[in-house]
Design goal:
two-stranded antiparallel ribbon, about 220 residues, Rossmann fold, about 25% strand, alpha/beta, about 25% helix, 14 strands
């Protein structure tokens, strides 16, 4: 009897935090890297579940996909899916703030200034780290200005208790390639492609290969 494939959970895309029924706060995330990771993991034999935010792109075939809109939606999806996974890759771009209260109807345009009271969104990756079981791994992402990219990513890696983090320059947003560095809790610094930019599909294949084989 063959061993079951290991289970990989990937979050991708932005969150939309509603202001009213038609307006929202969001990050400029296309979800392209998360989609590429899901396709690469599927091709490598992983059992892949993708939690995908509000993006236009369709998920890869052969991948179990659940959609979400807001941070609250994603938190509920993680509550349901995280306990069963072996590895979680948090490639999602969660909005850091959301309106404290959302107006259900459309706010009328009055021509006067509009003030919104914002509150921080929950730290979803920290919540997963707090309840992970032995053997589970969590890989996070840090999107930062190039000048402070690795120092801020390393600080986030330690503060959140991640197993590894992808230090990802701001220029990646909306681009077809990525010039990232992978930092691990064990002190490794890994640069795919010799440190130069890779297209996102190639980077995804490299990161999935780094995770190891799809079967135990």
């Amino acid at each position: 009897m063959s061993a079951r494939a290991r289970r990989l959970l990937i979050t991708a895309g932005p969150t939309h935090e509603p202001i009213d029924a038609v307006r929202y706060i969001a990050n400029r995330s296309s979800g392209r890297l998360g989609l590429a990771l899901a396709a690469a993991a599927r091709d490598a034999g992983w059992d892949v579940t993708l939690l995908l935010g509000p993006v236009a792109a369709e998920p890869p075939a052969g991948v179990t996909t659940h959609r979400f809109e807001s941070t609250a939606d994603l938190a509920a999806r993680l509550d349901a899916c995280f306990p069963d996974c072996d590895v979680l890759i948090m490639a999602v771009a969660v909005a850091d703030y959301r309106p404290r209260s959302a107006t259900v109807p459309k706010l009328p345009r009055s021509g006067r200034p509009l003030r919104l009271e914002l509150e921080p969104t929950p730290d979803l990756v920290a919540a997963c780290v707090a309840r992970k079981r032995p053997g589970q791994r969590i890989i996070g992402f840090a999107l930062e200005d190039a000048a402070a990219l690795e120092s801020r990513a390393a600080e986030k890696l330690r503060r959140k208790g991640l197993d590894a983090i992808v230090a990802n320059p701001l220029e990646t947003m909306g681009a077809g390639d990525i010039g990232a560095v992978l930092l691990t809790a064990g002190g490794e610094r890994l640069t795919p492609g010799g440190g130069g930019p890779l297209d996102k599909a190639a980077f995804a294949r490299w990161l999935i290969a780094w995770l190891g084989p799809a079967t135990p």
